[in-house]
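Protocol step 6 of 9: fold each sequence in the batch and record its structure tokens directly after the sequence line. For illustration, a two-sequence batch is reproduced in full.

Sequence one:
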Amino acid sequence: MRLYYSPGACSLSPHIVCREAGLPVSLERVDLKTKKTETGRNFLGINPKGYVPALELDDGAILTEGPAIVQYLADRKPESGLAPRAGTFERSRLQEWLNFVSTELHKQYSPLFNPQIPADIKKIFTGNLERRYAFVSETLARQPFLMGATFTVVDAYCFTVTNWSKTVGFDLSPWPALVDYQKRIASRPAVQQAFAAEGLKV
């Protein structure tokens, strides 16, 4: 398998999952501005949507969208416990969380990276994040991970997105349980390996 990624982008989530599951995967960096990969390939020919992650399977098939990719990877190694078995209520609960992170956290950050968006508009999205993180923090005050006692693919995704708070200057300190969660996940060996491979500082 080959994972097309950009350092620290949402592609970090499936990268972490691969390392947590012990799945062999090669990495190919993508320049999101030029849409070229590090080997000179046209990324739009791989993923016409133009963004990472994209996972190229051994048979050449391409899978896109982070929540779909991390579930696929977890199902390749069910013994890893990174996702409940398909068809169970717990799997639907995992999908509920993945959808929440995707729509209510991930997409709230996107405008904060855009220098052309006025400050008063960014304040709206910051307020949205504050309300969403209050909910996440309430969950983490009761249990160590979003699904309960064990780390799953949704934690890889939530950690990745929440790590962007450093870049955009969003203060997490009002939610101590969330701050602790980020620190605990950052200390995981697989996460540290993924950061090192992408040239990032934990």
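Sequence two, same batch, same settings:
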Amino acid sequence: MSEQITVTVNGDTVSARPAANTLLSTFLREELGLTGAHVGCDTSQCGACVVLVDGKSVKSCTMLAHQAAGTNVTTIEGLAGDGGELHPMQEAFRDNHGLQCGFCTPGMVLSAVDLVSRNPDPSEGEVRSWLEGNICRCTGYHNIVKSIRAAAKVMRA
């Protein structure tokens, strides 16, 4: 029998007994029904599964659920406010056409939130460098960078 873990996900405390080899992405998607963290590669190459763990962007396909015990995990579902208002980063992606098919969007948005928390005024080059671990299959990088810089401006205000 596996050990019980307690983790706060999107503000809610969750206790569960995932198998020792359960990935955080699998735990979120299959046990909690939070499917916003997309699994595109299972090898830490694409970034579609990024979530925030204690405010830091993490590829959830490379972290075990047990490693998240005692942490605060934020998924794309938990980024918006309780009243349904979008986070400034989500608004900027919408307003600046920073998404196309949408598969990479949750990972891009959460990675960008981490970037802007560390660097409130990133240059285009800094944004592009930060996103090297996030792949957009539609090649929408221009508008993704534009979205992140627009959101950073709003978040600084």
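Proceed to step 7 once all outputs are recorded. Observation for sequence two: Helices lie at 24-31, 76-79, 88-95, 105-118, 124-130, 141-156.
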